[in-house]
């Protein structure tokens, strides 16, 4: 796991709900400005602008067709925006490939898990870290270099076991990923994402298809990771989960950001209510 964040300064606020330390004063690693995505004559995202605060669990919600998934895909590099910019840690990442964005510390999970079914759970997790020396054939066979490859592989294996233990799926380490339940796959996907040592994680409906027992476990893990300094942007259709767990919520409607605020503010916002009821805003 990542090192614990430094002790709070006077400029930081302790979140009483999760125990996490949130920075005040405009520390926003992810900034989306004027984002637009067109598919032929259809505009899926229309001038979306928002930012995500460091150390936060931020929800991104909206009725079906609001543009949430397209926005996620533009941020993660799956789609190239038609217009607008995505900035991460002060760097313009607009239009970069997904692996380039992941290398900068911004990773995502998927609504439908994408594990390698014919590899074991442990192998799936060990495969995630980038720049492994063993991936280079000449390094693996060159005397003097081979030793460092073995050392790195041992370190990766140790960390993989730590991840499996954290997500409580270490008992499945030698099971093929294709044999896992939907909920177990979501836990494995989170473990793989965290093995890349990211700064921020985009969660695309991480609770879809997960039974209530594993759902609670996954939410608890997300809060633990947030307390350890991770930042999350969270797309989820279960409004109860969003309202009870996110400290900031962004609402999209018809490709635009309709409003944003705390759970209490979103619950009482008439425009949000109308949007979810399918009425004109």
UniProtKB/TrEMBL annotation:
<feature type="domain" description="ABC transporter">
    <location>
        <begin position="30"/>
        <end position="279"/>
    </location>
</feature>
<keyword id="KW-0547">Nucleotide-binding</keyword>
<dbReference type="InterPro" id="IPR017871">
    <property type="entry name" value="ABC_transporter-like_CS"/>
</dbReference>
<dbReference type="InterPro" id="IPR051120">
    <property type="entry name" value="ABC_AA/LPS_Transport"/>
</dbReference>
<dbReference type="InterPro" id="IPR003593">
    <property type="entry name" value="AAA+_ATPase"/>
</dbReference>
<protein>
    <recommendedName>
        <fullName>Probable branched-chain amino acid transport ATP-binding protein LivG</fullName>
    </recommendedName>
</protein>
<dbReference type="GO" id="GO:0006865">
    <property type="term" value="P:amino acid transport"/>
</dbReference>
<keyword id="KW-0813">Transport</keyword>
<dbReference type="GO" id="GO:0005524">
    <property type="term" value="F:ATP binding"/>
</dbReference>
<feature type="region of interest" description="Disordered">
    <location>
        <begin position="1"/>
        <end position="28"/>
    </location>
</feature>
<dbReference type="InterPro" id="IPR027417">
    <property type="entry name" value="P-loop_NTPase"/>
</dbReference>
<keyword id="KW-0029">Amino-acid transport</keyword>
<dbReference type="InterPro" id="IPR032823">
    <property type="entry name" value="BCA_ABC_TP_C"/>
</dbReference>
<comment type="similarity">
    <text>Belongs to the ABC transporter superfamily.</text>
</comment>
<dbReference type="Pfam" id="PF00005">
    <property type="entry name" value="ABC_tran"/>
</dbReference>
<keyword id="KW-0067">ATP-binding</keyword>
<dbReference type="InterPro" id="IPR003439">
    <property type="entry name" value="ABC_transporter-like_ATP-bd"/>
</dbReference>
<comment type="function">
    <text>Probable component of a branched-chain amino-acid transport system.</text>
</comment>
<dbReference type="Pfam" id="PF12399">
    <property type="entry name" value="BCA_ABC_TP_C"/>
</dbReference>
């Amino acid at each position: 796991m990542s090192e614990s964040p430094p002790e709070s300064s006077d400029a930081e606020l302790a979140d009483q709900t999760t125990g996490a330390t949130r920075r005040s004063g405009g520390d926003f690693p992810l900034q989306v400005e004027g984002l637009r995505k067109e598919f032929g004559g259809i505009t899926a995202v229309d001038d979306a602008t928002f930012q995500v605060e460091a150390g936060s669990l931020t929800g991104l919600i909206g009725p079906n067709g609001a543009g949430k998934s397209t926005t996620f895909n533009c941020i993660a590099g799956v789609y190239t925006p038609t217009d607008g910019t995505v900035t991460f840690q002060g760097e313009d990442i607009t239009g970069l490939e997904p692996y380039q964005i992941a290398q900068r510390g911004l990773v995502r999970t998927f609504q439908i898990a994408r594990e390698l079914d014919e590899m074991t759970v442990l192998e799936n997790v060990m495969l995630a870290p980038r720049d492994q020396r063993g991936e280079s054939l000449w390094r693996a066979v060159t005397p003097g270099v081979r030793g460092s490859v073995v050392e790195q592989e041992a370190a990766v294996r140790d960390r993989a076991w730590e991840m499996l233990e954290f997500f409580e799926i270490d008992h499945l380490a030698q099971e093929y990923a294709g044999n896992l339940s939907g909920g177990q796959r979501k836990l494995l996907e989170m473990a793989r994402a965290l093995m890349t040592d990211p700064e921020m994680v985009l969660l695309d409906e991480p609770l879809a298809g997960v039974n209530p027992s594993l759902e609670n476990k996954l939410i608890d893990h997300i809060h633990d990771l947030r307390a350890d300094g991770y930042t999350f942007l969270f797309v989820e259709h279960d409004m109860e989960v969003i309202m009870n767990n996110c400290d900031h919520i962004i609402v999209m409607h018809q490709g635009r950001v309709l409003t944003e605020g705390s759970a209490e503010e979103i619950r009482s916002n008439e425009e949000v209510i109308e949007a979810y009821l399918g009425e004109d805003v």
